[in-house]
């Protein structure tokens, strides 16, 4: 029904990789259809950029954003990329130092790109930190990071399924090649917040909640999920510890 949904739409905004399900969306296919319908495309790549090689032209993006804290960088900083002609046509949304080229009594002239969107004192330390994170990831190689995550995700899905069977649900694709390394689960009838607290006592850090995706939680028919996130610094020992830690939690809340 995508073609029908695109009728009259000016902007399509979608995530490249779900931070809940790990799903790798068919971004280029959607972007091509959106462009054919006369729509612009904005891609939230916060969960995608840290894990896969990224080319904005290959994805078909008009605008794309991602954040630093998901890619070994500092909090409080991110990136908005946009096609130059599109950014050039957009007015600045913040006023402050360095975003003006000229100031008059009756108005002002915005500075050139990218300065017109960077008002005021920049977050200098965060910028340096994000640059270092980019260099670090590129030094490791994004292809190698992706290969490592696919291997770990396959191991985790198999380990959880073999150990807990129908007592545990993994939301999202079961094929590791179709997803990222975030695993949102439901374990027995244990509330995700209770599960995360018990696991925390064993030194296992997971995220519990709706993950800024309440409409998706409603679609899944749950109030929240427990999410384990695998990255370049994890290995199979971490997954084994995570899998083992679920059983005591189930025993506690079975009482």
Quick synopsis:
The protein has 255 residues and is of the alpha+beta class. It is 38% helix and 18% strand. The strands form 3 sheets. A 4-stranded mixed beta sheet has the order 1-2-3-4.
Structural features, described:
The chain has 255 residues and is of the alpha+beta class. The protein has 2 domains: 2-140, Type I PLP-dependent aspartate aminotransferase-like (Major domain) (Aspartate Aminotransferase, domain 2, 3-Layer(aba) Sandwich), CATH 3.40.640.10; 142-252, Aspartate Aminotransferase, domain 1 (Alpha-Beta Complex). The protein has helices spanning 2-5, 27-36, 56-59, 84-89, 124-140, 142-164, 192-200, 214-220, 236-252, and strands spanning 11-15, 40-44, 63-67, 78-82, 100-104, 107-110, 168-170, 182-187, 207-209, 225-229. The protein has a 4-stranded mixed sheet with strand order 1-2-3-4. The longest helix is centred in the middle third of the chain and has 23 residues, at 142-164.
């Amino acid at each position: 029904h995508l073609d029908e949904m695109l009728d009259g739409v000016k902007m399509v905004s979608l995530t490249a990789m779900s931070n809940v399900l790990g799903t790798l969306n068919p971004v280029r296919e959607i972007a091509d259809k959106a462009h054919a319908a006369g729509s612009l495309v904005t891609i939230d790549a916060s969960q995608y950029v840290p894990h896969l090689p990224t080319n904005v032209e290959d994805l078909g993006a008009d605008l794309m954003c991602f954040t630093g804290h998901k890619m070994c960088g500092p909090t409080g900083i991110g990136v908005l990329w946009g096609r130059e002609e599109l950014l050039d046509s957009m007015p600045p949304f913040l006023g402050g130092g360095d975003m003006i080229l000229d100031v008059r009594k009756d108005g002002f002239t915005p500075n050139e790109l990218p300065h017109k969107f960077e008002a005021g004192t920049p977050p200098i330390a965060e910028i340096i930190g994000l640059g270092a994170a980019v260099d670090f990831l590129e030094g490791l190689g994004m292809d190698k990071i992706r290969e490592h995550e696919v291997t770990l995700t396959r191991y985790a899905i198999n380990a959880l399924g073999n150990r807990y069977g129908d007592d545990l649900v993994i939301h999202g694709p079961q094929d590791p090649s179709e997803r990222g390394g975030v695993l949102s689960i439901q374990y027995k009838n244990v509330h995700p917040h209770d599960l995360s607290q018990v696991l925390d006592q064993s030194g296992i850090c997971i995220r519990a909640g709706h993950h800024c995706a309440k409409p998706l939680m409603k679609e899944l028919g749950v109030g929240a999920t427990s999410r384990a996130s695998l990255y370049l610094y994890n290995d199979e020992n971490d997954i084994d510890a995570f899998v083992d830690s679920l059983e005591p939690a189930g025993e506690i809340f079975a009482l």
